[in-house]
Amino acid sequence: MLPCFPQSRYTCRNGQNYPTDYAQFVLDVLAKMTRDAGAIDQAILQRAIGLASSYLVTDASTNPDGGIATWKTGFNRLADLVVVLHHRGELELDTFNEASKACSECWSVAATWRGMEDCRQGVKEVAGKLKKLLDEPNRRTYKGHKVYTPNS
Q1: pTM for the full model?
Q2: Which end of the chain is more exposed for a tag (fewer CB within 10 A), N or C?
Q3: Which residue numbers in the chain have pLDDT < 50?
Q4: Which structural domain range is residue 62 located in?
Q5: Total number of domains constituting the chain
């Protein structure tokens, strides 16, 4: 069973709503994971990546001035960790697929919600990092395995 994510300090308390912050959430999850296990648990990492599109909506809507920046920072930190795991030879296919799926979902959210068009640049940055990890020459597999792509 997976450990619970740290309590968010940005949830509703005492009847007040606080803005979410994906960057802080990512730091909290990574700190707890490494403190508790001493290593990166990719099942937990996958869950944190899978929340990217939800945090895109909540960061932007609960913090109109800086929420997109917090989301972008958190998503990029996770992508950087995926790249590190790849270079160490430890990246699991499921983690790569979850990151690819998160890019697709965030792209759709950015296209659907008014005022989030600029978020597509953040998705492009993360997708670009992931694309560099794909097998040559076709860029459709990771370590010989087909990867998640929308509508496939």
Answers
A1: 0.88
A2: N
A3: 1-11
A4: 22-146
A5: 1
